[in-house]
Amino acid sequence: MDKIWIKDLEIFAYHGVLAEEKRNGQKFYVTVSMDVDLHAAGMTDDLDKTVNYAEVCELIRRTMQEESYDLIEAAAENVADAILLAYPQIKMVHVIVSKPGAPIPMDFDTVCVDITRGRHIAYLGIGSNLGDKEAYLDYAVDQLNKDEYIQVTKVSSYIITEPYGDVEQDDFLNGCLEIETIYSPQDLLAVINDIEQGAGRKRLIHWGPRTLDIDILLYDQEMIMEDTLKVPHVEMAKRAFVLEPLAEIAPYAYHPGYHKTIIELLEILQNKKD
């Protein structure tokens, strides 16, 4: 991927844990590398085909000066977020915030924080079998789109499916979504849980009825095995109500655990039933 670099942008700001740092301020230096496709700009010599680095510099200055942070980690995080939110064509941003005047009683050059943030493709499964099922699924899509860190890029058809498990309950309405997000998987999970709660979701019975269920199925090619989050979703390859709508919007999405595409997993599952 092509890159635009801004190196050692000098900004006077008021960040630090100590009271005198917030009172007196000091110089910070910000270096940014932005991953962006520059081919069209190079071929046309057109500023509209690239990222205006003068505007980015001003955005960095505002972000660094409009708020006082205790930590340069927070300053770097907010600079990265500001750039990604302002420029959808930037796929990834690398931010270094340097603090040469850090209160360290030794000889040193500078203290730096170095972070990389970017856009991620995730696939979500959505389902409901209580109340107005379609309205609950539409609510999930709407709430995700309202979050500035998320863009819903594809929505599958909704399909009626029999409930999974041994609990007697109404049929489900299920679908899948493709999203682009700046959130980490853990932060995305927190947002999803809030949306479920907003729809009145109560986790009373395992595989029981619910107003709204949202699962992270895939997140880039990451494999996560934590107590609260497992990606890819551990049951997705066994569930036609997941694979069918997912194959509609992303047939060639790749499952990093099974090393197969979604359409391949669906075919395997269908052959088992025949």
UniProtKB/TrEMBL annotation:
BP terms from Gene Ontology: folic acid biosynthetic process; tetrahydrofolate biosynthetic process
Claim: Nucleotide-binding is one of the keywords in the record: yes
Keywords tagged on the record: ATP-binding, Folate biosynthesis, Kinase, Lyase, Nucleotide-binding, Transferase
Catalytic activity as recorded in UniProt: 6-hydroxymethyl-7,8-dihydropterin + ATP = (7,8-dihydropterin-6-yl)methyl diphosphate + AMP + H(+); 7,8-dihydroneopterin = 6-hydroxymethyl-7,8-dihydropterin + glycolaldehyde
Domain 7,8-dihydro-6-hydroxymethylpterin-pyrophosphokinase: 206-217
Family in the record: In the N-terminal section; belongs to the DHNA family.
Biological role: Catalyzes the conversion of 7,8-dihydroneopterin to 6-hydroxymethyl-7,8-dihydropterin.
NCBIfam families given in the database record: folB, folB_dom, folK
Full protein name: Bifunctional folate synthesis protein
Organism: Wujia chipingensis
Phylogenetic lineage: Bacteria, Bacillati, Bacillota, Clostridia, Lachnospirales
Gene behind the chain: folK
